[in-house]
Amino acid sequence: MVQHKTKVIIAKPGLDGHDRGAKVVARALVEAGMEVVYLGLQQTPESIVRAALEEDADVIGLSILSGAHMTHFRRVRELMAKHRLEDRLLTGGGIIPTKDQDKLREFGVGRLFGPGDDIQDIVDYIRDWHSKHTR
Amino acid sequence: MDKANRKRWEEQFRQAELRQADFSSISGRELQPLYAAGDLGGFDPEAQLGYPGTYPFTRGVHPSMYRGKLWTMRQFSGMGTADQTNARYKFLLARGQTGLSVAFDNPTLYGRDSDHELSAGEVGRTGVAVDSLTDMERLFRDIPLEDISTSMTINAPAAWVFAMFLANAEKRGIPLAQLRGTLQNDILKEYIAQKEWIFPPEPHLRLITDLMAFSAEHVPSWNTISISGYHIREAGSTAGQELAFTLADGFAYVEHALRAGLDIDDFAPRLSFFFNSHMDFFEEVAKLRAARRIWARAMKDKYKAKSPRSWLCRFHVQTAGCSLTAQQPEVNIVRTALEALAGVLGGCQSLHTNSMDEALALPSEKAVEIALRTQQVIAYESGAANVIDPLGGAYYLEKLTDDLEREAEQYFARIDALGGVVPAIEKGFFQQEITRAAYQYQMAVSRKRKIVVGVNDFVNAEQRLEIPVLEIDESVERDQLRLLGDVRKRRDNAAVQARLAGLKTAAAGTENLMPRLLEAARVYATLGEISEALISVFGEYREKPIY
Amino acid sequence: MISAVKKKGIGLKTKLPSSPATAGLWADFFQGSRLACARLITAVENRPELIPEIRHRLIPHLSGAVRVGITGPPGVGKSTVMAGLARRIIQDSHSLGIIAVDPSSPFTGGAFLGDRVRMQALDRDPRVFIRSMASREGHGGLSPAAPHAADILEAFGLDRILIETVGVGQVELDVLSCADLILLVLQPGTGDVIQSLKAGILEAADMILVNKADTAGTDSLLESLRFTFDISSRAAGTPPPPVLAASAVQDRGLDEVHRELEQRIRDILQSGRFHQKKRALLAKEITSSIREHLWGQFSALAKIREELPAVVERLARKRQSPYPYIRKVCSQVRIQYAKGRTSRGQSQ
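Structure tokens for the assembled complex are given below, as produced in the milestone run.
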């Protein structure tokens, strides 16, 4: 019986070019047996959600270090709702102050990760979420 | 007699109980517990070291080094609007900073105007927003550009940002020949690490060579390129990779300029470098010394430069942003101090020390003051600046310097086998090496083989991780957009269109584009408008994702 | 626009039960919901037991879209070629499905799917549907679910399907079975490019494209290819496949590739080869499904799966032939038509 592999979109919205973290996370997820659609840099919220739709992704992970996280996370969440993807996980990381993380959680964004967080925690978080939310 | 002593020590060491720890360098380099004269095998101080200011410059680029002039204390900064940044510059200059370094926001770095679709939410966040000559005028208001050197960290649109800088100097009546400073202008490392490009490699290289030729004639004291390893290291490379890839980029620029018909001794003296200074103290000092030696040998023996000024690897150092932690941020002051000391002992020409919160947000005034004071303590209290290349001759250091040089040579051979830097970029060679190193390091941290104090050991359980924020509020974007609108209304739009059309025609040909860019800048053409004009001729570049 | 393209009616009565997993999707799918299309593709990837039911529902809606397999060694620029061809196909007023397959790691089972990025210029076009797939158990660089995904996209109303794979495995099994036409992409290189290709891949190709034609070695590769085909085509009595050159990243030469591709499409439609292939696939689908079913029943009855490891161990240790065992097992089960009996001693 084939198990449902977790499909994750990893993307960097906007103009931030620091992709070291996104690549390390992408690789860790692949090593953990997941299928990662790596969209990389200069994505718009529209292109990210469109990819999530066509790829039927379980998880969208955004990496934002430029400070523009409120704009981008909120817009992606709106588009997810519009395309009936609100049951998927929106997570991510970067440089996001705690009070902003709290605000985003109210918006339906999942746990967010920051500098110094163990990559294993990120892998475990996504794996656990998916095992509880298999469609 | 020494052989016997050595054998005795080796035996004692073998029997000693060792700590449970990873004794390799942060780059994964295996290290012996001890280095002695016998480990240097055939070391010839004349050939390997020489003297400061003489070939091969291992010990320093100037005969007097810091006894003659201390390194420039140059804190990289920029935020919000040009007016806010101008205020920060005045603050820093008043506190003893000796040179300016401009940080631009993301839209500017990508050559886009503040009102571009992708700029939303990014204006003024990680640096100053510059859309046109107006912003340059405000940025440097009341600052004596003829007396202070200015470094601008800009790459993809460097040529037209520089044009705006020059246009501003002209308006203020400052002769271009009096301007001193540096442009980063290093597009190859963008493809490798920082990812701020616009066009494919060839058009960017042409713009770089055009700028080099223009500058050699009109702005002769300007460093036209700061060939950078900092970002390569920040992307996760090892010290050896940082060294090799940076110098390989340098060779690629030299070869490109030679192919374009420039004389090596005309442009080479104005090439400069920019390295990272990371936590593994001795590896960093060795890396910087190796850089000088490798560059000197290549410029003299391979590229046959005649002027000794062409053989110099002069560089700026910035302490490693990626080594800083969000947890217990005050500890970052210590990290930065050690890294800064390594930069000084490595003989840097200028130095930026990170603020404790800099990896997370733009630095507060307090934090940036401490960073500056760190340099001043090193310069005036530690004695590190009293003797030239004080670590020279240390067995460990000389061995490391040799090893790093050898590692770089191996990389050069591999890059050549791939056809050179640009083909290697297109094949994803650098990106693969860097991503692998970054992943291995992250796994080592995850498995606690490499310790990061406060993060995976010596953790303060009660401490709630706080990311301090220098609030860039949304009025910055609003103000900048309003200003941009004003500029577009008040300028001579017919002139702008005419100059842009002329630029496009020139871009399709082979003439030097700098004069055209200067003309466009003078009439307040915006950054984005110039970028779009050039994109229509050169096309846009999309990266193949390398994993 | 996709929903306007040929539909053959909703609510087809089927004797196969509709599983809960897909029940809610069909109505949406036939109304043009991209989400439903994506979810059906996920179903064929993750729940192969649903494939018969899904095929059953889709077949009446298959419009005869042409499937083009794009294969070749890693690094030759397949995605860039695909992106260039895709743009031209759209400009020709076709709608397009793209399936981009990347290899799954044999150790971790995960996959890095990085082809979609290369096609981002097409991203905003509603006439395009792009799906990345991991090869999973596919041995030839193609996912076993890919042909079914192609069916789904075809039934969704797309009239061209491009399937990109890494041609490093047994081409015959995978790409051939799925595609109506195969475009093999190569690049000039040091050493003998042709020698380093897997056996069969050159013969299977309907078109060959030498990409990165602005680099050294192009002319000699083109010559080697033409020479190779010259011999084999004369021997076989068939015309050689077209060999073209282009530089996808500079967008040069792709107009001709596109024209040639459309010509080959017309050829296979007119010559009947397209339809022959569909028939051959149908026959294969029937025989392999029945074979699967029979094996499943047989092995359960004869309890083969349970005893096989021990049998194998004994035979290997004693270095004995497996045929006595095989004969014995086969003789224990009699096949007959169901008329109240499915096996010896058991009634239905």
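The radius of gyration of chain A is 13 Å. The CA atoms of residues 6 and 96 of chain A lie 25 Å apart. Further analysis is deferred to the final report.
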